[in-house]
Amino acid sequence: MTRSEMLFTEAARFIPGGVNSPVRAFGSVGETPRFIASAKGAYMTDVDGNTYLDFVGSWGPMILGHSHPVILEAVQEACREGLSFGAATEREVEMAELICSLVPSIDMVRMVNSGTEAVMSAIRVARGFTGRSKIVKFAGCYHGHSDSMLVKAGSGVMTAGIPDSAGVPAGCTQDTLTAVYNDLESVKELFQACGSEIAAVIVEPVAANMGVVLPEKGFLEGLRRVCDEYGALLIFDEVITGFRLSLSGAQGYFGVRPDLTTFGKIIGGGMPVGAYGGRREVMELIAPSGPVYQAGTLSGNPVAMAAGLAGLRLLRDTPGFYEDLNQKADRFFEGMKDALAEAGKPWQLNHIGSLGCIFFTKGPVSNYAQAKTSDTKAFAEYFSFMLRQGIYLAPSQFEAMFLSAAMTDGELEGVLESFKNYLKESQF
Ligand SMILES: Cc1ncc(COP(=O)(O)O)c(C=O)c1O
Prior knowledge:
- By secondary structure, this protein is an alpha/beta fold.
- The chain folds into 2 domains: 3-67 and 320-425, Aspartate Aminotransferase, domain 1 (Alpha-Beta Complex), CATH 3.90.1150; 69-317, Aspartate Aminotransferase, domain 2.
- Helix content is 39%, strand content 14%.
- It is built from 15 helices and 14 strands.
- A 7-stranded mixed beta sheet has the order 4-10-9-8-7-5-6, with helices on both faces. The chain has a 4-stranded mixed beta sheet with strand order 1-2-3-13.
- A hairpin with a 2-residue loop joins strand 11 (348-352) and strand 12.
- Helix 2 (69-81) runs antiparallel to helix 11 (302-317), helix 3 (90-102) packs parallel to helix 11 and helix 12 (321-342) runs parallel beside helix 15.
- The chain starts with a helix and ends with a helix.
- The model has no long low-confidence stretch (mean pLDDT 96).
- The protein binds pyridoxal-5'-phosphate.
- Residues 59, 114-116, 119, 142-144, 155, 204, 209, 237, 239-240, 264, 274 line the site of pyridoxal-5'-phosphate (PLP).
């Protein structure tokens, strides 16, 4: 028995399913989760001493690679000053100014502790601002685990085989309307039926929780137009895409301006951080300046702010950071596409910037229904093969591959070789 297996057995006695977040259980790929002991640069090492090239990157935050010395130093310095004060600090001001300076649609921002909290709070302020109740989301988009968003959610909800979570009263989701990703008509129909009751449309500008699904040309622009026509707010959930696709997120990449934006992952540099921000007149409604209540004991925590600030400044101050990372990722994903074509496999590969995903299905994947046609058994075979080659992928068909700046072209070429070997051996 490996140490990971022993720990998983022990964990299952004390932690539901043995893990603190469902997808970590490796359930849908029929493997035992690897318990990680440490990580540095592009690699993670498990408790049995196996080292893996990491394509999960803590599910997004580690765009600079693990244990970046500048971030570690900033955290250590902040720790020496105190772990939490429950009072205002200078770093919070620096963080807010930095986010507002990098993302033009954001005049004001509030820090929270997770992406879930950011989304939950953005929805509340959108409802407070418009005086309306209904929210439009898209099937297959995941916006965290708050009650109203657990409707046709992607991510772990898909692989756990739970269509919608137990424990969510119907009353909590009655105002959540679901549209089809990349299908503007489905959005217009909802607005035609009850446009005056819709507070906001929330969307992942690149969907990265049903695998990776790109917005088709005109889709995001169309959402902007419909929201304007009906006086609803447009919320971009940039928990994954924020500071990943570009320094101004997916909104900068595609040139579409939302009213509100949610962040998480990268803005914490590896610490638990979320944020939501947007137009001044909307954000000013939040307590204590306005009547929309939202609070947090550890929000804007000094150690978390130090990590996030150090990370974001590195991204801002490294010349050509996104060009280099995105070009490296393009070469890699296009190499995978070529390998699929050479091997005569009909599978789909969607990618944008440093995000990508293979769908084990024949047709193009541009929405949830198409993503669900993927053969998850084929994915599990691919996952296990790659894991044994020391390549750590997200243990689910419906998650992204996250590339980091710490990966070299040489390492990525090695992964391509492994992938080609896998294609030769695949039973599918
Ligand atoms: C797009 C999106 N929104 C919200 C969340 C929830 O963030 P958290 O897990 O930090 O609560 C996630 C998490 O993966 C996400 O991908």
